[in-house]
Structures are given as structure tokens and as C-alpha cells.
Specification:
This protein has 95 residues and is an all-alpha fold. 77% of the residues lie in helices and 0% in strands. The chain has one domain. It is built from three helices and no strands.
Length: 95
């Protein structure tokens, strides 16, 4: 059971780090620090977008429009942390 808990924890940690990388890359592109037409940058944005945009789209559907501020990564990060704690607590036997 400990191996399953560690596996879930590592998968969620990987998802969180890739979400942070996606947000940072989008900021770098938005502030014109990184050229989005470079092949590596385009590949990274495409890959990370395919992982995170489906869930961020669901979150955006329920958030109010705040103009240029996108709170969906923060809400998604909190939701993933909450679900990880819930699943690990359930698997650990509620200790």
C-alpha cells in the first residue's frame, strides 16, 4: 500500500510541476521574452497545453470573467492538492 501512495504522490507532484512550467512558459511568451515560433518552445507549449488545457478549460467554465487575469491555474493547483491529500488519506486508512 505504501508503494501505491508514493506512486500517486509522485504522479501528482509531476503534474503540479508541469502545470507551473506551463504557466511560466505562457508568461514568457506573453511578455515576449521567448519566441513562440522556435520549434522547441512551440513543442513545449503544445505538449504542456494538451496536458493541462482540458482541466483548465473546465475550471474556466465556472470562474467569473476577471478581464486579463486567469485564476484557473491557481484553482486547478489547489484542487489537485486537495484531491491528492484526500486520496492519500483514504488509502492510508485515515491516520
Amino acid at each position: 500500500m505504501t508503494a501505491l501512495i508514493l506512486l500517486i504522490d509522485q504522479i501528482v507532484n509531476l503534474y503540479i510541476w508541469t502545470l507551473l512550467a506551463y504557466v511560466i512558459v505562457n508568461w514568457l511568451v506573453a511578455f515576449r521574452i521567448v519566441n513562440p515560433w522556435q520549434p522547441f518552445v512551440r513543442m513545449a507549449i503544445h505538449f504542456l497545453g494538451r496536458i493541462h488545457e482540458p482541466l483548465m478549460g473546465l475550471v474556466r467554465r465556472y470562474l467569473p470573467d476577471l478581464g486579463g487575469i486567469d485564476l484557473s491555474p491557481i484553482v486547478l493547483l489547489l484542487a489537485v492538492q486537495f484531491l491528492r491529500n484526500l486520496v492519500i488519506g483514504f488509502l492510508a486508512g485515515g491516520q
